[in-house]
């Protein structure tokens, strides 16, 4: 097996930004994968990782804005970013559809992230060559 | 080959275990073979007689009892960890298989994942 | 009612590094209150503490932990509040 | 010292709902404190604990809605609930003022929670008889 | 009497330590006496030569160097934990006092808190 | 380029229970890649692993961890990607 064989990846992020290093490690990994000619099929946010899809994160201006950096990366490379619906709803991450459905005062999901079920994760595992998880640390 | 979902955190104190369970149930729902391994403090998921009503949570016992029905192939628990937490056979939920969570066990699965 | 120097509220399982550290730091005039995952310490042969050890009953019941008769005093949230008032200092681990 | 001597408490919650047990433990404690005739001066949300002030959390209907339960409790007893501004902004918890200031598409802070600096915590420590912390577990 | 803020988690992997530092700086800003204790894996905050630019974080070394200026009374570190992480005296940041994080130490402070 | 059976990505510090478990589970045909807080394992006298141990250089540099000459091979994110492709299975701890 050669390093140059193109691979495809599903990445799963379970650690939140500004709480864990997972979003940074995953972004550095994803950029390196694409640079090597591999494909990133999908990024799936699970558990506390759904916070990465927040449209409202406002860190100090001298710190990386991880939700924005990830959004830009996903858009540039046409990669779907999906937040698990069960994790997202519990943690107050909602799109306009869920806002209406639950009669909430606002929505806060940052494009191009979408909300979907764990089926997206199951499908990613089946169709990608490798699924790599980025968890919170300690 | 099958997927192994590992739960090594105790129930109720965090949500990671519940989210691991959801992963296992989802795989099973899509007809993907999956087993659950409880190790470390995670073996406390398997203790009989959990009554979490006062702390406002639902018992995970019922979820685990439903695992075979949903198609989860096996509930595995590390025997040494059960012993360490004083879990004798009669205190364990039904349907749990005691194993040794070693190198050998993991080679039986093509994928292994934690929920967080 | 005896004075408590420090009340240590310990919510971590015995696997967490804070569990052992809390036990090693509690002095003889201190009380350790096990809550949340901390009550799992009652089911392991953990290093014994020099202070008094109590456990929160609702968290024990949730986890199916039954007190061996006489080994640990159990308290409810009302008693937990009273303990924090009796202690000169409270440390949450 | 008698149990019946009235005390006042500042409570600090650093664990998030649907990720840790901290919001439940803290609410049970707070209710018991008030029942015993003590005062709860203030509840301060810090770190991941700021998620408890989300107006958008939508757990399944058979699970407690912790942000709502806490809001109701605070209102019933006239207790100020304060989320640390630095923790909240990084994690995407903002009120209308911060929404305008940072030109964000929405706000998601649940009343009666407000956003303020760590000075509120320092002041609480000084004025209350006891400060009790509720951290995330493992 | 003084407050002790304890940092027992390593830097960069989580934000809890940074938030503990903010607590200490806030107390100092309000003229409340405060010291920091690094123990367990938290002693890794004190290692010289941290270069977190590639992982997109700011060095905590600079924050710690500012601690005395902001009025933090002492930076304490558990000596045994430093040894365990191979931290010899010459690899430690300036201004750190090695102590034994035992029962005796904690009785010197009227308040002790972790950030999470 | 040799085959890797399982690549273990370990991001926890030596204090975390998963650190010891990962080391005990990795077999001789496996590779352990220390990332994030995991690189702190290089500075402790941790139980040695039977598999090969690598460490992510940016996380070492962040924490001021200098590799003792020859004790551990360091990799960058590009090499981390290549490792995941070479391994038959990847486990993130």
Automatic annotation (TrEMBL), chains A, D:
InterPro entries reported in the protein's UniProt record: DsrEFH-like, Sulphur_relay_DsrE/F-like, Sulphur_relay_TusD/DsrE
Keyword Transferase among UniProt keywords: yes
Record bears the keyword Endoplasmic reticulum: no
NCBIfam families (alphabetical): PRK00207.1 (NF001237), sulf_tusD_dsrE (TIGR03012)
Any single GO BP term: tRNA wobble position uridine thiolation
Species, as recorded: Marinobacter pelagius
MF annotations from Gene Ontology: sulfur carrier activity; sulfurtransferase activity
Protein's name in the database: tRNA 2-thiouridine synthesizing protein D
Pfam assignment, any one: DsrE
Subcellular compartments: Cytoplasm
This protein's UniProt keywords: Cytoplasm, Transferase
Homology family: Belongs to the DsrE/TusD family.
Chief location of this protein within or outside the cell: cytoplasm
GO cellular component, one term: sulfurtransferase complex
TrEMBL record, chains B, E:
SUPFAM superfamilies: DsrEFH-like
InterPro entries listed in its UniProt record: DsrEFH-like, Sulphur_relay_DsrE/F-like, Sulphur_relay_TusC/DsrF
Domain of life per record: Bacteria
The family this protein is said to belong to: Belongs to the DsrF/TusC family.
Name this polypeptide is given: tRNA 2-thiouridine synthesizing protein C
Origin species: Marinobacter pelagius
Organism ancestry: Bacteria, Pseudomonadati, Pseudomonadota, Gammaproteobacteria, Pseudomonadales
TrEMBL record, chains C, F:
InterPro entries: DsrEFH-like (IPR027396), Sulphur_relay_TusB/DsrH (IPR007215)
Pfam families: DsrH
One GO cellular component term noted in the UniProt record for this chain: sulfurtransferase complex
Leader sequence segment: none
GO BP of this protein: tRNA wobble position uridine thiolation
Name of the molecule in the record: tRNA 2-thiouridine synthesizing protein B
Naturally occurring in which organism (per UniProt): Marinobacter pelagius
């Amino acid at each position: 097996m050669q390093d140059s064989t193109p691979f495809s990846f599903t990445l799963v992020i379970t650690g939140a930004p500004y709480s864990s290093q997972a979003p940074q490690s995953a972004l550095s990994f994803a950029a390196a994968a694409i640079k090597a000619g591999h494909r990133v099929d999908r990024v799936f946010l699970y558990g506390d990782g759904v916070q990465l899809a927040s449209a409202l994160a406002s860190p100090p201006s001298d710190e990386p804005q991880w939700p924005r950096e990830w959004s830009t990366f996903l858009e540039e490379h046409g990669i779907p970013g999906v937040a698990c619906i069960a994790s997202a709803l519990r943690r107050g991450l909602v799109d306009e559809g869920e806002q209406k459905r639950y009669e909430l005062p606002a929505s806060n999901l940052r494009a191009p992230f979408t909300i979907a079920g764990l089926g997206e994760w199951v499908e990613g595992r089946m169709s990608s060559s490798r699924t790599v998880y980025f968890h919170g640390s300690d | 080959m099958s997927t192994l979902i590992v739960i090594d955190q105790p129930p109720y104190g965090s949500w990671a275990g519940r989210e691991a369970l959801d992963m296992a149930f989802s795989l099973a729902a899509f007809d993907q073979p999956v087993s659950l391994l409880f190790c470390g403090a995670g073996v406390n998921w398997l203790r009989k007689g959990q009554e979490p009503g006062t702390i406002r949570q639902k018992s995970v016992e019922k979820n685990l009892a439903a695992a075979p029905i949903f198609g989860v192939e096996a509930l595995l628990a590390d025997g040494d960890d059960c012993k360490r937490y004083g879990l004798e056979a009669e205190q364990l939920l039904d349907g749990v298989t005691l194993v040794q969570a070693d190198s050998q066990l993991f080679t039986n699965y093509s994928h292994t994942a934690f929920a967080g | 009612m005896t004075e408590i120097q420090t009340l240590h509220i310990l919510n971590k399982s015995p696997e967490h590094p804070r569990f052992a550290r809390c036990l090693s730091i509690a002095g003889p005039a201190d009380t350790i209150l096990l809550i949340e995952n901390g009550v799992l310490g009652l089911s392991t042969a953990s290093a014994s503490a020099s202070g008094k050890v109590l456990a929160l009953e609702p968290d024990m019941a949730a986890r199916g932990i039954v007190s061996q008769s006489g080994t640990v005093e159990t308290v409810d949230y009302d008693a937990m509040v009273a303990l924090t008032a009796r202690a000169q200092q409270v440390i949450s681990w």
